[in-house]
Amino acid sequence: DGGITQSPKYLFRKEGQNVTLSCEQNLNHDAMYWYRQDPGQGLRLIYYSQIVNDFQKGDIAEGYSVSREKKESFPLTVTSAQKNPTAFYLCASSPGTWGRETQYFGPGTRLLVL
Amino acid sequence: GNSVTQMEGPVTLSEEAFLTINCTYTATGYPSLFWYVQYPGEGLQLLLKATKADDKGSNKGFEATYRKETTSFHLEKGSVQVSDSAVYFCALSRESNDYKLSFGAGTTVTVRA
Q1: A contact residues 37-96, partner B, Cβ 8 Å cutoff
Q2: How far apart are CA A105 and CA A87, in angstroms?
Q3: Which residue of B has its CA nearest to A4?
Q4: What is the pLDDT of residues A66-79, one digit of tens each?
Q5: What is the edge-to-edge ordering of all strands in the sheet holding B62-65?
Q6: Is the pLDDT of residue A40 over 80?
Q7: Is A32 within 8 Å of A23 (Cβ atoms)?
Q8: What is the largest CA-CA distance in chain B?
Q9: For an interface test with A, which of B38, B49, B101, B102 has the most A Cβ atoms less than 10 Å from its Cβ?
Q10: A107:B45 CB<8 A
């Protein structure tokens, strides 16, 4: 089955700790995205990548970092600089071209601060 | 950039009631329009889409028509079920010729038996 997997489902972070959220896709999509969702709110774009070894900041990149060393993988690190990291994090992918904008989402990771 | 405005929720309905969720957009050019659905604790799933004016997207009994004259893409379902309880998001391309999407704030729908 083609799709996007995210792990872990739940993640706990201590003060001052960096944590990394995993996102893998086997859809052969070029573009990948990370969104943050807070309760009762829409999706805010953190980072996106259109191609391997390249990524761009989204609307709320401060306190986050990403890498794109492989086409199928786009991990997100929540650093200690992110002062309010508690949220639901969603990874998505798409073919990465205009006219083919449909995004496919993973099941999400819920990050909680201890 | 392009943007969408959704009706605020929450919306609470009885089973078999008619559902409408309003979505209006502001855009340059002719972006594709999308409705996504998010069930509790899950990621988003594409519900339907329309790529040009007057197109009607449909899926699982839901429909939405791309109305250029009113810049709208309202979601409708004639008879809702408890299983339709979810958050619904309207979305469109962020900019002309851009592959990234901009999402509305979401509308929470609860269907009671």
Answers
A1: 40-43, 45, 48, 50, 90, 92, 94-96
A2: 16
A3: B43
A4: 999 999 999 999 99
A5: B19-21, B75-77, B62-65, B56-59
A6: no
A7: yes
A8: 44
A9: B101
A10: no
C-alpha dist (Å) from residue A31 to A49, A79, B3, B29: 5, 23, 21, 22
Return d(Cα B100, Cα B88) in angstroms, integer: 19
Return d(Cα A75, Cα A68) in angstroms, integer. 7
Which tokens sit at A2? Answer: 């083609």
Element (H, E) at A74: none
Asked whether B66 and B73 are in contact (CB, 8 A), the reply is yes
Q: Is B46 on the interface with A (CB under 8 A)?
A: yes
d(CA B86, CA B89): 10
B42: nearest CB among A48, A104, A107: A107
Q: Which residues of chain B make contact with A103, given a CB cutoff of 8 A?
A: 44, 46, 101
The number of angstroms, rounded, from the C-alpha of A86 to the middle of its chain's C-alpha atoms is: 14
Closest-CA residue in chain B for A89?
B43
Closest residue on chain B to A104 (Cα): B45
Does the pLDDT at position B77 exceed 90? yes
pLDDT tens per residue across span B8-39: 889 999 999 999 999 999 998 888 999 999 99
Which one, of A107, A108, A21, A31, lies nearest residue A65 by Cα? A21
